[in-house]
Amino acid sequence: MGNKDDQKICQPSQGVHIVLPDYYSPEDMGLLDPDTSDGRVIFFLPWQKVTLAGTTDVACEVTDKPSPSENEIQFILSEVRNYLHQDVDVRRGDVLSAWCGIRPLVMDPNKSDTQSIARNHIIEISDNNLITIAGTQSIARYHIIEISENNLITIAGGKWTTYRHMAEETVDKAIDVCNLKTTSGCRTKGLMLDGAHGWSPTLFIRLVQDFGLENEVAKHLASTYGDKAFKVAKLATLTGKRWPVSGKRLHEEFPYLEAEVRYAVREYACRAVDILARRTRLAFCNVHAAEEALPRIIEIMTEELKWSKSRQQAEMEHAKQFLRRNGIRFRCWYLKCSNQLY
């Protein structure tokens, strides 16, 4: 932005993750290998009652609907086989979900070789004091801060897990380069997010005792919403059973509650996909369970938002299109091509 003749610094990279049943990993232990057969990183980790495995690393073009390819899924499965006992049959049909994301990797403008691409972030400052923030296997994984002749600050790369660090470095650099006056130091370290103030490791016990929730459900609510879990629990309906007293699940295999749909709508969730993929992780954990829960999600959202029949149909189709990108069509492809039941 500071100089139209400057070289391009951002290199989008596509990464695919797949989800496998929980028996592919121990409950409290994962594995990461930074040196696979072609130099990419592979990992599989216990996550949300399933096993998360990945990842690929391929240069790509930016699109708002990235989709995993069958070759990428097969690569991950092939690598996973190297870490399991030979008696374990790693099957394509075990893939519960697959999705793809785009990483904003960057090339360090101060370096000329292929080792200059970063996974973390870069800061650059142009001549006119404009500050910019932005972020595959041969690309550097750390963030870079670049200051141009006109003091444009560019920060590129990075990850969600380092966003506070990125922001702190960018602001500190702007203060230094532009001689800005401050009234206090950085406050991001230790700043609590909403729901953290009243959280404790034993908060879930109060949810069990006060609302008659299952242990698994109570732990999920406490870890997801913090002290806001009580607001969700108050929306939970009675089960009609001796135990649990309240808390109807969206799907019997996962601890997500129908009450979470109502809470999410009142917290500005607008579409069924918001529930499946953003307020819960159901679409990423098991795309087939997500499809099974979809009608009830739309039914609850209709009660809350007064949707018409046409809007309900539109939401159903929109959500199914999203789920197809997350793996439904891959399962169908496998059944058709292999004629194998599993």
TrEMBL record:
UniProt similarity note: Belongs to the FAD-dependent glycerol-3-phosphate dehydrogenase family.
Source species, domain of life: Eukaryota
GO process terms (BP): glycerol-3-phosphate metabolic process
Subcellular locations according to the entry: Mitochondrion
Protein name: glycerol-3-phosphate dehydrogenase
Protein's pathway: Polyol metabolism; glycerol degradation
Organism: Mytilus edulis (Blue mussel)
Primary subcellular site in the record, as a coarse category: mitochondrion
Keyword terms: Calcium, FAD, Flavoprotein, Metal-binding, Mitochondrion, Oxidoreductase, Repeat, Transit peptide
Gene Ontology MF term list: glycerol-3-phosphate dehydrogenase (quinone) activity; metal ion binding
Domain FAD dependent oxidoreductase: from-to ranges: 7-136
InterPro entries with a match to the protein in the record: DAO_C, DAO_C_sf, FAD-dep_OxRdtase, FAD/NAD-bd_sf, G3P_DH_FAD-dep
Cofactor section: FAD
One GO CC term, this protein: mitochondrion
EC number, as in UniProt: 1.1.5.3
Annotated Alpha-glycerophosphate oxidase C-terminal domain residues: 186-311
SUPFAM superfamilies: FAD-linked reductases, C-terminal domain
Top-level class of the enzyme under EC nomenclature: oxidoreductase
Gene3D superfamilies: Alpha-glycerophosphate oxidase, cap domain, D-Amino Acid Oxidase, subunit A, domain 2, FAD/NAD(P)-binding domain
Keyword presence, Repeat: yes
